[in-house]
């Protein structure tokens, strides 16, 4: 359906444009002496509105002859022929309508009146139809541009989602590899602990499958996942691994990407606690600020640990996900003092969740 005919408001605005054009045509007919001003208005305004409906066909003519396919020469020829035919049809309508007007005022010189006004009517209609075709081509070009922009945005969204899926996919194999190695080691040394670790791992994976497909989850659930992960690692490390997970009551409902903290707490265990004979405490805390949310993961480290045993993969993964989701509005900073490693996330609050909102 024609985009104007599909909406009554558009059609009313479109026809309103033709009223002043009809008044202009009436003035031309009066100046030529075809009709007096009153009868010219009665003749020209309805004719102009009727021609407005006829000019709607320009949309379909331009749709059948797109410039990029048929070329400029054929477009020009099509425009001239279509304008000529539409003006001829309008001239026939004008003859009948002017005949009614002339007969109603008992003016017998219909041939003279029509003959005088015919060139003006034809030329006026010819130019208006050319204008209608030009507007239709511009509208079609605008629609093509807007559609291309929409498709480009869709491709960007799909690419971002594919990137996020790939980044998430890096987390699971890395974590599963470490967990399965731990279970394998415990099966001979402590079968009971191995069984408990399997159950905890099953619960953890069930939870991650339920939440991992979502774009955002509340921070409270993300911290619960981090706590469950640390509980799994406690089976392996025993009393060497302690944990403190503190949540700001005002930050619990703030939404974050799922599994964003897992690489950080995994690094805290793998590259921190695992190298300390006496073990240590992994602390996870959060703080809601005016327009941001800050989450900190802190753990002790061995100052004499071998160089190059850092947590590059996990940090790269988190930074890449932050960039994909928030652009430059989020950050991950790390501080390594030799005996302590601190990773601090700063995320923008979602609209409507800012302080006082």
Instruction: Give unreliable regions as ranges.
Output: none
Rounded to the nearest angstrom, the radius of gyration is: 38 Å
CATH architectural designation of the largest domain: 2-Layer Sandwich
CATH topology of the largest domain: Heat Shock Protein 90
**Tally of separate helices:** 10
Question: What does this protein look like?
Answer:
The structure is a single chain. By secondary structure, the protein is α+β, with helices and mostly antiparallel strands. The chain folds into 2 domains: 8-152, no CATH class; 190-348, Histidine kinase-like ATPase, C-terminal domain (Heat Shock Protein 90). It is 66% helix and 12% strand. It has helices at residues 8-32, 37-55, 57-64, 67-70, 72-104, 110-189, 191-212, 219-237, 262-270, 312-326, and strands at 217-218, 241-245, 255-256, 280-288, 292-300, 331-336, 340-348. It has a 5-stranded mixed sheet, with helices on one face. A two-stranded antiparallel ribbon has the order 1-3. The longest helix is centred in the middle third of the chain and has 80 residues, at 110-189. The radius of gyration is 38 Å and the shape is rod-shaped. The chain starts with 7 loop residues before the first helix and ends in a 9-residue tail after the last strand. The model has no long low-confidence stretch (mean pLDDT 82).
